[in-house]
Amino acid sequence: MGLAEEVRGLSQAVLTLDKATIRFGGLFAVRDVSFSIQSGDLFGLIGPNGAGKTTCFNLITGVYKPTAGVVKFGDTVLNGQAPNRICEMGIARTFQNIRLFSSMSALENVVVAGSLRQKSSFISALSYLPSAIKETGEIRARALELLKVMDLEDIADVRSCDLPYGKQRRLEIARAMATDPTLLLLDEPAAGMNPQESEQLMRTVRRIRDEFGKTVLLIEHDMKFVMNLCERIVVLDHGVEIASGGPAEIRNNPKVIEAYLGEAV
Amino acid sequence: MAVDHLFAAGVNFGSLPAQVVNGILIGSLYALIALGYTMVYGVLRLINFAHGEVYMLGAYTALFVSWLIYGNQVAPVHTFWWALPTMLLASMTVSALVGVILERFAYRPLRNEPRIASLITAIGLSLLLQFGGQLFLPVAPPPNINAKVNPYSDSMTFYLKPPAKPLADKASSLEAEATATEKAYNEALSGVPSGEEPGPTVTALRNNYFEARNAYEEAKGAAANSGVSVTIPKGQLIMFVVTMFLMAILRHLVMFTKQGRAMRAVSHDFDSASLMGINVNSTVTFTFILGSALAGAGAMMSATFISGVKIDTFYGLLPGVKAFVAAVLGGIGNIPGAVLGGLLMGVAESLVIWVGWGDYKDAVAFLILIGVLMFRPGGLLGSAKVEKV
């Protein structure tokens, strides 16, 4: 990491991993991984299967507690915080294997997540207080808005488990967006998508950054997707960070090429 | 339970509607308890076998509050309108509290352990409260809530088919005669100085009155038998109405409030719910509050409105088991399923009594359980999980 970057990291990093480590028994799933993400970044996390990418997401979102090292969100240390607290602070994620609330409709999925910022209590909601009704209406309207952004408005009332795979993936993004995060983590958003779909997704992710001002950290296997979309990339292999930098640097990094065993990167 | 007095001698189709209605009334109580099982199962995948004991403690609370209001075992001189609502609220509150305590101190520490640990704990808690409760709660002689506390102990009769017109007319004319002869007899009797034997005129008037009354009773019975009627104790009708009201509130809560949405999300996927910012612990607590409060309401109403009920520490055992079966019948984890299961369960019990096998009414629950597990393990409204290959 260059000096300039480090200084920038100290000033306004959204997320900082400092020698983050997690060990399961004797196995290091993630070892001494350090990087920092600046506000407005489109940041990629790549690596071969089993490199520890999703584990990194789990460290950041509080599913796992780091064995050593620090995960910081702005100036707040996230180590040991409950996942729901971390989400409240402003980190939302999607999942590699889709985990929607399967028998709820698409809209309901988004509304559930949108309820995070709801203020009115259940008593006021039960007694039909005007403020509660208004707030519920607002959450619904915002959820519909997000579905529109993800190009899903026509399937708002379809049960999420009945949706085709690509739409489920986009619905997960809409759901994560509904919690109004500062930082959005996308775990293989383009997995299982055809080239057109992934092209469209790329535009959407850019739009999320540009229009909604979100910082995005994503894991992706589709190299074309990552290289075209991300401005900064970190490469993990066997839980260790082996490279970081812009797409061009990464593409030509011999360690990365080796890690991918000669795969054209 | 309520259906005890309805042993039918042989199959009598005229009494079928009455039995079905009775089954629905008692079934609504099972449904209320079953909701607690099904909601807790929904969020935690845990059968809270101590739920019946939460119900039992709710009944005791109603008893104690009735003692506080009216004094121990003394027939109240007059009833206060606020007594029953107070008992209801107290039972709901105490039950909710007990549910929360059970969850916080017994189930939560075991949440990440294998599920069997929580299950065994639930059974242990149930036994602990049943037997341990005997040390602290009045059990011998088994107390009951004073019948005078319930001003709604009389019944209402609804005619599905009105009595035959001539028979009804005859009965009403005989009633007029009975009233007239009674009046004449009473007047004559009041003319007799105290301490003296009534004379033959008075005796004759008395015999007149008795004859007229017997004729009237007979005609009334014949008239009633010519119609199809359903007789419901008012208290049980109130129980049904309150139950439906509580279920409506519950539905609204679960469908349209933040906590309700959180409950549904947690029941779908614990982990992804928490990653969407849902506080799983408070959602689980909320679920226990709802389920236990409903059980408390059911306990208060069954202990108050069903006549002749004795309360002991096993008060929740059978209703608990039956409600559990109701939840399984409807599809455990499914809220409308619990209501449907409870109602079907009540009706099934009534029908068993109707065909004359009243002695086996408690066994029908287990027959249903076996049947559901054999033929539709997911329950009526539940969907059996199909393993994708």
Task: Give a verbal description of the structure.
The complex is a heterodimer of chains A (265) and B (389). Chain A is of the alpha/beta class. Chain A has two domains: 1-90 and 181-265, P-loop containing nucleotide triphosphate hydrolases (Rossmann fold); 104-178, no CATH class. In chain A, helix 4 packs across helix 6, helix 4 runs parallel beside helix 7 (165-178) and helix 6 (130-149) packs across helix 7 (165-178). In chain A, strands 6-7-8-3-9-10 form a six-stranded mixed β-sheet, sandwiched between helices. In chain A, strands 2-1-4-5 form a four-stranded antiparallel β-sheet. Chain A is built from eleven helices and ten strands. Chain A has helices at residues 3-12, 53-60, 83-89, 106-114, 122-126, 130-149, 165-178, 195-212, 223-229, 247-252, 254-259; strands at residues 13-24, 27-38, 42-46, 68-73, 76-77, 91-93, 183-187, 215-219, 232-237, 240-245. The model of chain A is unreliable at 1-10 (pLDDT under 50). The two termini of chain B are 48 Å apart. Chain B has helices at residues 16-44, 51-70, 83-107, 115-136, 165-191, 200-226, 234-256, 258-268, 270-275, 280-305, 317-330, 335-354, 364-375; strands at 155-161, 228-233. Chain B is mainly alpha-helical. Chain B is 67% helix and 3% strand. Residues 1-10 of chain B have low confidence and may be disordered. In chain B, strands 1-2 form a two-stranded antiparallel ribbon. Chain B folds into two domains: 2-154 and 232-375, ABC transporter involved in vitamin B12 uptake, BtuC (Orthogonal Bundle), CATH 1.10.3470; 163-226. The longest helix of chain B has 29 residues, at 16-44.
Secondary structure elements and pairings:
The complex is a heterodimer of chains A (265) and B (389).
Chain A lengths: L2 H10 E12 L2 E12 L3 E5 L6 H8 L7 E6 L2 E2 L5 H7 L1 E3 L12 H9 L7 H5 L3 H20 L15 H14 L4 E5 L7 H18 L2 E5 L3 H7 L2 E6 L2 E6 L1 H6 L1 H6 L6
Parallel strand pairs in A: 3-8, 3-9, 6-7, 7-8
Antiparallel strand pairs in A: 1-2, 1-4, 4-5, 9-10
Helix pairs in contact in A: 4-6, 4-7, 6-7
Chain B lengths: L15 H29 L6 H20 L12 H25 L7 H22 L18 E7 L3 H27 L8 H27 L1 E6 H23 L1 H11 L1 H6 L4 H26 L11 H14 L4 H20 L9 H12 L14
Antiparallel strand pairs in B: 1-2
